[in-house]
Each structure stands twice: as structure tokens, then as C-alpha cells.
Amino acid sequence: MQFSNPAFLFALSAVLIPVIIHLFNFRKYKKVHFSNVQLLQDIVQKTKRESRLLHLIVLCLRMLAIAALAFAFAQPFVPNARHRQKGGATALIFVDNSFSMTANTKSGNLLQDAVEAAKNIVNAYPYTHDFILVTQDFSPKESRPLNKDEILSLLDEVEVSAHSRSWEEITDYSRHIAQQSKKGEIYYYYISDFQKDEYNFDDFKNDAAHPSFLVAMESSRAGNISIDSCRFVAPVFKLGQQVTLYVTVHNYSEQDIEKLPLRLYINKEQKAIVAMDLKAGSAAEYQLNYTITEGGFQAGRLQLDDAQITFDNELFFVYEVSPSTKIIAINDGAPNKYLTSLYGRDSLFACMEMNASGVNYSQFDGCQLVVLNEVKHISSGMAGELKKYAEGGGSLMIFPSEQQDTAGWQSLLTSLGAPCYGKMAVAEVKVGSINTESIYFKRALEKQSERLDMPKVLQYFELKGIANGEVLMRLENQAPLLSVYPVGKGKLFLSAVALNDKFGDVHKHALFIIPMHNIGIMSQIDRRLHNVMGRDDMQSLNGMVQNGDAPVVLKLQDNGDEIIPEQRNSGNSILLFFHNQIKEPGFYDLLHGGVRVGITAFNYNRGESNLDYYSDSELHAFSKRDNAPFTLMDGAAKDLTQSIADRINGTPLWYYFVLLALLCLLAEVLILRFWSIGRK
């Protein structure tokens, strides 16, 4: 047996008080003379010995009662060998502050109840212990050893977060942070409503040395309707174009919805509306059609009305309507008339011709496609600029030359992770197949005839090496004719033939013109329609280089709040790192040197939309498994502090001593009351 407050054992000296009273309070008898004692014959004669016995019994009861109270205040307990603390302990407390914790309860909401439960856990520990607070934000401000007063103060500052971490992320981060503590014992407390979509206990890694506790907050299932995502099929956007936006909506409630309006706004103007009918527990994709009437950046917003859970009722997205695709053709001699006809005479393209001996690399900024047309020699400087351009998000298309410098070209293609040009094969071969499922062919051919007239080549370059690419066209001998390969954030299009008659009639055939035209159109730099707060912490501004000391600033529209993210130059791009700086959803203007260079959109994470929780019985089932990884506790329990203290210290005995003291006092009263009666 051990004591939590051994200092109270000094109160045992109080047992001397009834002893002193007993010694100095003996009753002295007097002799009384009666003339007639006949009336006293029925009285039991009390002897001196009987009086002493009564006093001794009462004295012992009083001494035992005082001793029992002293022991009770010293808080005795039987130590728990498993949870024995050596040199103090650390309590790591995770408080789930995601959106699902905003559900209403009798005392406010789940988050307020979780904070109160965390305070009760802290109060179960003495001041000699360390504490670590972890929330969905993974904030450095919180994730460090704290004393008792610091963590109680920090708990009052916990607010709802847009982040929604997985169970694996939470446990891994918690164990990593806990290593900062120098205490020998670590206790993990996870306070949450435990949504099924976020918590997978099957993969919980048990740590027998450091026990874990799940503190479940009682929550009720609420119906919710969420706008999950949106997408366009069109790769580029032009003025006057009819486009279709595909929107996925999920009904997480247990009731069907009928005729619920879904509205689309572009630049604050309503463009389309659709009435949704959606079965309970299902998802569906809806189409909203409209015509593009403005150029530049377009700020789109989807909205539905769902009163129960509101954070996922809106979805913000951004796209750009470009007037034309900027293309640079680098020639080793006179411009190629076929390239000029394709890209130089179409209003969709703005084509610029350059000679390989005098390339202006500064023009690569903002250029969507660079075409190398029969360039013989590739210098190391040109190779470096082309690699930087492609890795930064640009598209590079190569048509070989008969007299090309093998070493220079091999060095460039190897650095790009693409196959190299091998020997020239001179043979008349027809195109054997085209990849109609590729985005560069898809929907361009309404139907493919078995007797489709295929172009033929007279000579072609063999490609050496294996690369992770997509073949768009193959010859009958399975040799690749036109292929595409990923390069960083950009793409490389590699042709086995040049655009002249010596290589055949491929360059004149519609089946070759189709992918070349679509490559030009789709070479617009791909941008995400929107970012997810807490998940997409990096964004690239392609075709930009930081201007001096002027940083890129994010400014929330209609609010004015400004954010300066971390930014780095990467080739012809600026990389922005947000580091949890985004706190509100909506549209953010990207300002560079005070000039708006773009718009980006942020939305709340939809991971919290499905409000389906583990039941108490399911959590108990997990905790009862062999080698159970955690102990389940009720976060709403009034005696949570005492329950945790008992688990830490062992089996408490103080209430047994209080009961003993009360029994002693009761026995004294009964003896004093009935002693004389029992002697009659």
C-alpha cells in the first residue's frame, strides 16, 4: 500500500487527544446516605470495573476513527504495476477539433465537451507531470511539452479546424511528438466522436509500454447533403464555348431528397440551376450547361441548401479562359510550312518562329508549347533551358532531323527520361494502329472503319530505351510513331518522323493532324479547379519567375485578409507553400508586385461530410480484442478525473477508511446509548 498524500499521516498524532481526555476525565464517585434504600433495590449496581471497561471501549473507537480519517486524507492505494510511473509521466491528449465536432449537445457542442474532458484528464495528474496537446492542426504551438497551467490555458484556445487527419496520421504524429518528453511513462488520450470514415482501428499499432485511451464523445447521427467535387470535360476554355460542368453530390442522410436546387454562379452571376432527386445514402453526378461569355479568370461557386450541416454546402472553383495558346516553333533553317499552316493560321494559337541559333529563352515564360523542328545540334545551354521549361509544366514536341547530332540529342532525351533516337530505318510501312482512347484522339473520330485509310512512312527513326509513356500512333511493325512522356510537371511529345516528304505522307494526313492540333489546344497549363484546405498545401504558378523582392500575396476576396506564403523559384515557376495558413474557404487573388496574376480557390475538406460514427458496442468490441490496443472511456462521465487517477495510481482505498471512521463513530453512539440498557 502507498499514499498519494503521505504528509497527512502526521495527523495520526491526533489520536492522543482522546487519550488525554480519557486520562483527565475519570468520574469520581460520592457516597450518599439514604434513610431507606428499599426503592433502589431494582437498580443495577454499577461497579468501578464496569465503568472503566466502557471508557476503554469508547477510547479505542475514538482513536480508531481519528486514525482512519488520517489514513483517508493521505489517500492510500494499492499500486498498479503496469502503470507505475518512474520519474514522472507525460500525458499526450489529442482533441478532435474537426467540423464533425460542431454537432450540438445538451451543454453546447461536442468540441466544448471534448475540451472539458481534456481538462478533467489534466486535473487527474499532479503538477510534476508533463502534458502535450495535439489537435487536427498539428500546430507547433501546441505540440510540445507543457506544464499543467500551460495546457489548461491552451485548451481554452482550441477552435474548429478545417483539417481532417486520418487515424494513422494522428497516431504516428502523436508518437513522434511524445518522444520530446523526457519522462519515463507516456499516456495517450484520444478524444473524438470517432467517425468511421476517418478512424480505422484494425491497423492500430499497440504499444504495450505506453497505454492508450479512447475517450468517446457521445454524438448523434445527423443527415447531411454534400457537394463533393466538380469537373469539366473540356480541356480548354474559349469565349462563346458551350461547356458542361459535372458535379457530384452525396446524400448522407437517411431520407430521400426531391427537387433540391443546385445553383451555379460564375463571377457572382447565376449561370445554371438543376433540381436534384437523390436517394438516401447515395451519390449522383449532375450536369450544368452554360456558355462562356467572359475571358480571363473565372470564379465559379456551386451552392445547395442544407440546414443541418453547412460547411460542405458550397464548392468554390477557378478556371481560365485564354484568348489563344502561345506556341514557339524553333527551326534549324526556314520555318516549316506545315507547322505554319497548322499553328500560324488558326486563331486558337499564337505561333512564334525562332531560329535554333538565336533562341530567346525569356519568351518561354507563358508559353504553352515549344516545338523543335529538325534541329540538328542541341547545345548544353539549350538542353538545360528545355529541361527546365518541361519540368516546370510546359509541353515540348520534337520532330527529328536527318543530320542530327546524336550525342547532343541523346544527352537531352536521357535527361528528360525519354527514349533516344536510334538508327534510321528505311522501309515503306503503314500506320498500324492509333490510340483512340487517348485524350488527343478521343471523340475526334466518331466511328473507326475497319478499312480506314492509314498514312505511310518511307523512313523513320527507331527509339531506343524503355520509358513510361503513352503511344498515340504505332506502325504496322509495332514501332512507335508518336508518343507522349511525362517530364516533371510537363510533357514531351516525341515523333519518329520529320514533317517533310522524305519521311512519307504522315504529316499531310488527317490522322496525324488531329493529335497535333489537340496537343496545341491541350498544352494549356493544367491547373487544379480548386484546393482543399489542410490537404493541398502547395501550388505552382507556372510561367512565372519571382520579380526581385516582391513576394506573391494571397488576398481573400470580399474580406481583405492577406497571406504571404513561403515561395520558391523552380524553373519557370513559383512554388507556393501555405503551411496551414488558409483558414477560410473562398476565392483568393494572387498578387505579384501588386498586380493580380491569378485566382485560386480553397474549400473545406469533405472528409467530415459522412457523419457516421462508431457505436459504443463497436468500440467496446475493439477494446475487448486480444492484446487490445486501447482502453475505452466515456468522455461524458462525471467522474472522469477520478477514473483516470485510479487507473494511473492503482486501486484507491481512501473511501474504505472513511467508511471505517463512520462505523467507529456509529459504534460509539450505539454503545453509549444502549450500554446501560443492556446491563439491566
Q: Can you walk through the features of this model?
A:
There is one protein chain. This protein is of the alpha/beta class and 680 residues long. The protein has 4 domains: 89-221 and 612-637, von Willebrand factor, type A domain (Rossmann fold), CATH 3.40.50.410; 225-321, Immunoglobulin-like (Sandwich); 325-522, Rossmann fold (3-Layer(aba) Sandwich), CATH 3.40.50; 531-603, Immunoglobulin-like, CATH 2.60.40. The chain contains 12 helices and 34 strands. β22 and β23 form a beta hairpin. The radius of gyration is 41 Å and the shape is elongated. It starts with a strand and ends with a helix. 33% of the residues are buried.
- What kind of sheet is the major sheet? 9 strands, mixed
Main β-sheet, spatial strand arrangement: 17-16-18-19-24-23-22-20-21
| Relevant CATH superfamily of the largest domain | Class I glutamine amidotransferase (GATase) domain
The termini sit apart by: 45 Å
Uncertain regions: pLDDT < 50 for 5+ in a row?
Answer: none
**How much of the residues is beta strand, in percent?**
25-35%
Please give a handful of descriptors for the protein shown:
alpha/beta; 680 residues; 5-stranded parallel β-sheet; 9-stranded mixed β-sheet; Immunoglobulin-like
